[in-house]
């Protein structure tokens, strides 16, 4: 299979790249797969003509994994048009192209499609109600994909993604924890962290799944994150404990930490559907954080080497 992965310089794109190139189990399973990784330079999702040009000048793909996205949640409040273009209109275009090429499309979405007001973990069938521009544009991406591709697409909603790559909460806290004696962190937003390598592994397992490879399977939404629930405050405490950083962490409320974009209060997601459909087990967030810490801390980036 020819598999296109967009967003090659992002956390998830790089994590997929690393697994495809270094994990011997995946290499063996997927030796017949050809992965093509593209970044903004090759395929700029903010430009309709660039997208058309890229697909016109390349051979057909069997699967498109769209990891590229406008992910700057606060900045999206000002750059609404650009966020909508990348997260929604480009997805519309990709869906049309995938349909024409009879390719499958995997779209990564977010827990921020929900308003966070539920007291139990969100099911895929729960009604979304995004409260910020980023969430609205990602939901619009989901909806256009479902409309254009009622079959052959998968939407994976994930949350609180971190990795050894790029900017993310874990790396920011490790830096701030070493610079400061004390930090205030929001304690009334609850969710589940996701180590990008775990999500990358799940995506590779899905495309290797025989059932998934059947043509014309109805388009489905799945939730995936690491297992367990936590607040940003508790997550920070655990990061510092693992890293042996001596920095006092003070819990504060969302109201005490104003941001341009509103954040949902509780975005825990129920993951039974993905677990049962693809026979996947989600590592607990604590174990993933512990396992990934050395890679994150050393900031060793095999991608560059
Ligand atoms: N990060 C999270 O906490 C989180 C939470 C829930 C869901 N998600 C979703 O998970 C997916 C992967 O996220 P991530 O954490 O890997 O994001 P990321 O690290 O921010 O990477 C996003 C990538 O998209 C690329 N991109 C942005 N605009 C583009 C454009 N106009 N054309 C082409 N590429 C463009 C960026 O390119 P440059 O490197 O050139 O800027 C970047 O490499 C996204 O769909 C995101 O919405 C993320």
Verbal overview:
The protein is α/β, with parallel strands linked by helices and 305 residues long. It is 41% helix and 16% strand. It has eleven helices and twelve strands. The protein has a six-stranded parallel beta sheet with strand order 2-1-3-4-5-10, sandwiched between helices. The protein has a two-stranded parallel sheet with strand order 6-9. Strands 7-12 form a two-stranded parallel ribbon. Helix 4 links the parallel strand 3 and strand 4. Mean pLDDT is 94; it is low at 300-305. The structure holds NADP nicotinamide-adenine-dinucleotide phosphate (NAP).
Strand order in space, largest sheet: 2-1-3-4-5-10
Number of strands: 12
User: Could you name the ranges where pLDDT drops below 50 across 5 or more consecutive residues?
Assistant: 300-305
Supply the helix-strand structural class. Answer: alpha/beta
Mean pLDDT across every amino acid position: 94
How far the N terminus sits from the C terminus, by CA atoms, comes to 26 Å
- Oligomer state equals single chain
Radius of gyration: 19 Å
List the helices and strands and how they pair.
Layout: E1 2-6, H1 11-22, H2 24-29, E2 34-38, H3 48-56, E3 63-66, H4 80-101, E4 104-110, H5 133-148, E5 153-158, E6 161-162, H6 169-179, E7 182-186, E8 190-191, E9 194-195, H7 196-208, H8 210-213, E10 220-223, E11 230-231, H9 232-243, E12 248-252, H10 272-278, H11 285-298
Parallel strand pairs: 1-2, 1-3, 3-4, 4-5, 5-10, 6-9, 7-12
Antiparallel strand pairs: 8-11
Helix pairs in contact: 1-7, 3-4, 4-5, 6-9, 9-11
Residues 7, 9-13, 39-40, 44-46, 67-71, 86, 108, 110, 138, 158-161, 166 line the site of NADP nicotinamide-adenine-dinucleotide phosphate.
């Amino acid at each position: 299979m020819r598999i296109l992965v967009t967003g090659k310089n992002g956390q998830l794109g790089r994590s997929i790249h690393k697994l495809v190139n270094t994990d011997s189990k995946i290499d063996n399973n997927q030796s017949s797969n050809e992965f093509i990784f593209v970044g903004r330079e090759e395929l700029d999702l903010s430009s309709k003509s660039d997208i058309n040009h890229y697909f016109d000048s390349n051979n057909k793909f069997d699967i498109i994994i769209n990891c590229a996205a406008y992910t700057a949640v606060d900045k999206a409040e000002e750059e609404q048009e650009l966020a909508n273009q990348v997260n929604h209109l480009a997805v519309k275009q990709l869906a049309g192209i995938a349909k024409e090429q009879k390719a499958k499309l995997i779209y990564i979405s977010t827990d921020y499609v929900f308003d966070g007001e539920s007291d139990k973990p969100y099911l895929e069938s729960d009604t979304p109600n995004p409260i910020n521009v980023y969430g609205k544009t990602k939901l619009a991406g989901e909806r256009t994909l479902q409309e254009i591709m009622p079959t052959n697409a998968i939407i994976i909603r994930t949350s609180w993604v971190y990795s050894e790559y790029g900017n993310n909460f874990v790396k920011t806290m490790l830096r701030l924890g070493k610079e400061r004696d004390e930090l205030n962190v929001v304690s009334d937003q609850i969710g589940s962290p996701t180590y990008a390598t775990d999500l990358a592994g799940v995506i590779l397992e899905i495309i290797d799944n025989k059932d998934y490879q059947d043509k014309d399977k109805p388009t489905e939404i799945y939730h995936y994150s690491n297992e367990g629930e936590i607040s940003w405050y508790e997550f920070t405490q655990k990061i510092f404990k693992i890293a042996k950083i001596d920095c006092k962490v003070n819990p504060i409320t969302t109201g005490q930490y104003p941001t341009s974009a509103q954040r949902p209060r509780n975005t825990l997601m129920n993951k039974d559907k993905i677990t049962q459909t693809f026979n996947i087990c989600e590592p607990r967030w604590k174990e993933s954080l512990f396992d990934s810490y050395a890679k994150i801390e050393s900031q060793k980036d095999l991608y560059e080497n």
